[in-house]
Amino acid sequence: MSAFDTARLRADFPILRTQMRGKPLVYLDTAASAQKPQVVIEAVSNFYRHENANIHRGLYELSEQASLRYEAAREKVRELLGAADAREIIFTRNTTEAINLVAWSWGRSNIGPGDEVLITALEHHANLVPWQQLCAERGARLRVAPISDDGELELDGCESLLGRQTKLIAAAHVSNAIGTRLPVKKLAGLAQARGIPLLLDGAQAAPRFPVNVRELGADFYAVSGHKLYGPTGIGALYARAELLESMPPWQTGGGMIEQVSFERSSFAPAPVRFEAGTPDIAGAVGLAAAVDYLRGVGLARIEQHEAALLAEAVLRLGEIPGLRIIAGGEQQTGVLSFVLDGVHPHDVGAVLDAEGVAIRAGHHCAQPLMKRLGVTATARVSFGLYNTSEDIERLAAALRRCIEIFR
Ligand code: PLP
C-alpha cells in the first residue's frame, strides 16, 4: 500500500467504529456518499451552537459573522476547483442541481430548434435527463458519444458527432458506474475549437484527485458536498465569469434581486443572482471544513491511495470464480463494477450486507450505460481515503460466502 497513514485517518471518521449486522462496518460505497470526518461534524454543530443567523440580511454581528463564514466557504470551493474568482462559484444543493441550473439558465437561453447537445454514453442520469428534457422542449437533439467495450470514451466517435449545430458538450469527469476517467482535456480542445462550452460533471472526480478547472478548460464544473466528505444538501457549480454574466436567473425571489417593484425586478450580479432564498449556510460551513480536511490529507495522496486499493481489488476479485469485472478504461478511478455468474447483483449486495460490507448494487443511475454494457445491473465497490487492504479482504471473503450460498 501507499505511504498513507490510513489507521490515523480512519480515526477521524466516527462512523467507521460502528458495527453493522454485528460486524465491523466495511464501507465501500463512497461513490454514493462519503463518510464525514469529525471536523466536518463539529463545524456544522458549532455553527448551529454558536454562529447561526441568516446571511446577507441582518445588520447585527451574528449575521455579519455568518455571512463571512458563508463567503469564506465559497472561497474554499474556489481554491479546491482552481477557479480564478470566488464569484464564479455558485452554491447549489448538489451536482444534480448544479447541472439543472446550467440547463435552465444557460440552456434555455442558448439552445434552440435544430441545435444539438453532446453527452457521452456513460453519464449519470443527472447529466443526461436535464439535457434530454431541454432538447425535447426546444426542438433540439441529444447526441451520445460512444464508449468502447473496455469502457473508454471513443474520441473519434465523439468528434464525428460534433458539427455547427452542437452548442454544448456535457460529460462526466469520472464515471460513477464503471470508474472511467474521461479525456476531458481533449474534450475541452474539441469544445474550444468550436467556440462552445464544456460542462464537466465532477461529482466523482473532485473527491478523488486534484482538479483545476482552468487547466482542464472546463466552462462549467459541478460537484456535490456529500461526496467531498462534507454534508448533504450543499453542492457547487463553477461557471466561467464570462458565461455567468449573460445567464439569467433560474429561480427568483429573495436574496437574488437588486430592485423590485410591482412592475419589474432587476437582479443582483453572480453568484447571488443564482442563489434565491436562504441557502444551506451550515452546509457551506461544513463543506469548507471538508475542503480543508481534504487539502490537509492531500488530494494527490488520496489519488495514489485509491489507485493502490483499486489495483489490489482487481487482483483479489479476479481470483473469484465466475466474477467478471466491468472494464473502466486505462485510467479507471475509485470505482469497480462487477457481475457474479448466476447471482443477481442485488443478492450479492444482500449477502455482503449480512457480512457487514456495504456496497452498491443496481443500475447506478446510468440505465443507458447498463444497456450498452449488456447488463441490467452491476455490483459496485467504491473507495474512499479511509479504505484499507483489510476491507478488500473482507469483501473477497464475503463474495466467496455469496458463491457458497448461491451455487
Ligand atoms: N454525477 C455523478 C457522476 C454521480 O456519481 C452522482 C451521484 O452519484 C451525481 C452526478 C448526482 O449527485 P447528487 O445526487 O449529489 O446530485
Explain what you see.
The chain is α/β, with parallel strands linked by helices and 407 residues long. The protein has 14 helices and 17 strands. The protein has helices at residues 6-10, 38-51, 61-81, 95-110, 129-138, 155-160, 184-194, 213-216, 241-245, 281-297, 299-318, 345-354, 367-373, 389-406; strands at 19-20, 23-24, 26-27, 89-92, 116-120, 141-145, 166-172, 198-201, 220-224, 235-239, 257-260, 265-267, 323-326, 335-340, 357-358, 360-362, 378-382. The strands form five sheets. Strands 4-10-9-8-7-5-6 form a seven-stranded mixed beta sheet, with helices on both faces. Strands 13-14-17-16 form a four-stranded antiparallel beta sheet, with helices on one face. Helix 3 crosses helix 10, helix 11 (299-318) runs parallel beside helix 14 (389-406) and helix 12 (345-354) crosses helix 14. The longest helix is centred in the N-terminal third of the chain and has 21 residues, at 61-81. It binds pyridoxal-5'-phosphate. Residues 31-32, 94-96, 124, 126-127, 172, 176, 201, 203-204, 224 line the site of pyridoxal-5'-phosphate.
